[in-house]
Amino acid sequence: MKKNIITIIFLALLALTATAQPMKQRVQSDACITSAETQQRKTESQIRVEVSEAVELMSILARTAGNKEYNMDMAGQYTKDTEVWFAPYKQHAAVTCFQSLRDQHSISYDAVMSMAIHLNIDNGMVKFLGEQADLEKRWSNVDIDDFIDKLNTFYTDTRFHNFFEQHRMFYDEGLKAYETSVMTYFHQEWYARFYGTAPTDRFRIVIGFTCGGGNYGSSRQLPGQPRETYAICGYYINPQTGKPYGEGANMAATLIHEFNHSFVNPLLNNEANASLIANIGQKLHKFSAYAMERQAYTNWQTVVNESIVRAAVILYMLDQGFDQKQVLNELANQVCCSFNWMPELVTSLRYYAAHRDQYPTLNDYYPEIARCLSKFFENEVERMQKALK
Q1: Contact yes or no for 369/377 (Cβ under 8 A)
Q2: Cα distance between residue 22 and residue 194, in whole Å
Q3: Would you list the domain boundaries of the chain?
Q4: Do 373 and 277 form a contact (C-beta atoms < 8 A)?
């Protein structure tokens, strides 16, 4: 079975390569850019990688409350330090409050990070920024003032700032490692070129040192400021090398993925697009419901957005000249995650990329995405029916 899957993916990749010439030509033409222009592009696309005390606070609160996604414990000595420092506070009022929020409102995964980026810590006080409506929807019925009060008590009682400052050197080393191994693969200017729309958001990259293998895309809109889109990337020690993170190209795929969401998700907010793709989105969700729900993808909208985002990552990798084996591995990973329609969707987006005179933006191409996914589903149903004849 595995051999069949790899064979299918390999053939699909050959098809992608055959249709990739316009993008390859563009990559080759980049070699003719002057060194000054290259340096300017690098400066424009440079994003500072950050550590956030608020992200660590919310992550460690979720870990102490027992959230499995924040208990991967992949950060070596930092994980051990965290356990020793915060284990005595497992019965703290903030922890039991958070457990109730998780059980009653499903506050977990990206909802935790949504709150984190809406917090400001200054002079020993944790304050909520912005409007509650800007938070992930699972927070909509939560008493935010009460939660922030308890969070402040947790912050004070645990001497959280002392813990954070004692690990400042560790954080700095982690940020430097990420800059060196991952950021060289990230080119912000690609997004506007591919999607056909200029970014209106400010991109920010935060390393979540308690997130382990979890990665989250969140955004916030503070009054009078540009919308900020966050890629919160997990930190882990590679058990084979003893160094932070894995292969840079693989880590870059995660970063590229998170920023794609800020372009892809708004397309589904368009009522015309939603009406076009809702039917097939529901079918695909049902088609792979067990696997999707295990990945916390509980509705058809998430499945549609994730599908397009993951396909766009592969387009990025092809456009930026990633090694063919790396691209193949990324495509295989998506099929293994039960996005079985990924080869067809990537092929479709390759067509979009090669016909931008006909489709200036991905929004213009959205009806074709719906047709591509519908065709995949029809072919799968037909294939299964043949097996029963």
Answers
A1: no
A2: 13
A3: 1-46+270-389, 50-259
A4: yes
Q: How far apart are CA 81 and CA 31, in angstroms?
A: 47
Count other Cβ atoms within 10 Å, centred on residue 72. Answer: 16
* CA distance linking residue 129 with residue 16, whole number of Å: 45
Contact status, residue 172 vs residue 198, Cβ threshold 8 Å: no
Nearest to 79 by CA among 233, 206, 240, 236: 236
Residues 345-373: pLDDT tens digits? Answer: 999 999 999 999 999 999 999 999 999 99
- Closest by CA position to 117, among listed 262, 266, 217: 217
Q: Is the pLDDT of residue 107 over 50?
A: yes
The answer to whether 132 and 139 are in contact (CB under 8 A) is yes
E-only strand ranges, 66-142: 119-122, 125-128
How does pLDDT run across 251-285, given as a tens digit for each residue?
788 889 988 988 998 899 999 999 999 999 999 99
C-alpha 355/C-alpha 351 separation (Å) is 6
Asked if 236 and 79 count as a contact pair (C-beta separation under 8 A), the reply is: no
Q: Strand (E) positions, the chain?
A: 49-50, 119-122, 125-128, 202-208, 216-220, 228-234
Q: Is residue 338 within 8 Å of residue 292, measured between CB atoms? A: yes
Mean pLDDT of the chain: 88
Coil/strand/helix, residue 374: helix
Q: In which region does residue 212 sit, left (phi positive, over 0), alpha (psi from -120 to 50) or beta (all else)?
A: left
- Residue written as tokens 């200054």? 122
Tell the burial category of 323 from Cβ atoms under 10 Å away from its Cβ (0-12, 13-18, 19+): exposed
Encoded tokens for 295: 């990945």
Span 226-248, average pLDDT: 87
